[in-house]
Write a sequence for this structure.
């Protein structure tokens, strides 16, 4: 991998961790698109998992006292169950699949029937969220937009939303690291550990934490209404960009 690629990786980590830290979504989707653009899918999943674990984890630490623990416990049950099922087939998506899913996810909220709202705080909501979110995570590398569908209709404040989403997303990325860095590595040849220097992972962790801490200062200046509005428009713009990329790659016969 060239120095230019590594510089692009580092720059994208700083920018996207700031976006995630301010809006609690969007950044991870952009980062996944950039990583898949530059490197093989399995390696992109691994590096993305490491950086986003730190990015989301640091956000959870900053707003720790606002975490909604019943949601977290239910989410873990659903997430672990789906990871075990995926491990039985050791599925690795190609780049076309990743780009199309990353591009489609921000519009997931419009696919939910009118009058029917998915609520992670309702009975069974957290378990369903954990299962669906993890399935999408292991297929596309990201799941923030899907996760947002489960949170957008809740009565949680922006701080509770950011804290709870931060923790469960960091747990989701741990499962992704285990899946692609362990299970896929051991059962397939689709993981090139020599392509990316180990120190890139270390620097990525540091940069990811920094972006989140800076962004936390801006969160206090927004209202809950502004928070939801900016988050929705951000994810839709990101989704459209990567969906077009997926279509072009499919037409070119890439993957």
């Amino acid at each position: 991998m060239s120095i230019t690629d590594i510089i692009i990786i580092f720059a994208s980590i700083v920018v996207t961790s700031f976006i995630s830290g301010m809006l609690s979504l969007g950044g991870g989707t952009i980062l996944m698109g950039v990583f898949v653009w530059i490197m093989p899918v399995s390696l992109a999943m691994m590096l993305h998992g490491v950086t986003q674990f730190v990015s989301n984890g640091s956000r959870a630490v900053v707003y720790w006292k606002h975490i909604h623990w019943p949601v977290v416990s239910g989410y873990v049950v659903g997430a672990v169950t789906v990871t075990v099922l995926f491990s039985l087939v050791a599925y690795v998506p190609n780049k076309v699949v990743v780009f199309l899913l990353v591009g489609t996810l921000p519009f997931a909220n419009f696919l939910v029937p009118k009058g029917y709202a998915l609520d992670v705080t309702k009975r069974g909501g957290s378990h369903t969220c954990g299962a669906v979110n993890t399935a999408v995570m292991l297929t596309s590398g990201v799941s923030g937009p899907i996760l947002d569908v489960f949170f957008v209709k809740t009565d949680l404040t922006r701080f509770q939303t950011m804290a709870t989403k931060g923790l469960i997303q960091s747990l989701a990325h741990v499962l992704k690291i285990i899946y692609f860095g362990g299970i896929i590595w051991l059962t397939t040849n689709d993981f090139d550990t020599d392509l990316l220097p180990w120190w890139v992972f270390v620097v990525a962790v540091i940069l990811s934490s920094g972006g989140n801490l800076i962004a936390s200062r801006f969160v206090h200046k927004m209202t809950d209404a502004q928070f939801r509005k900016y988050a929705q428009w951000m994810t839709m713009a990101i989704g459209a960009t990567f969906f077009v990329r997926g279509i072009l790659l499919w037409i070119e016969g890439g993957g």
About this structure: Residues 3-252 form one domain. The mean pLDDT is 80. DSSP finds ten helices and no strands in the chain.
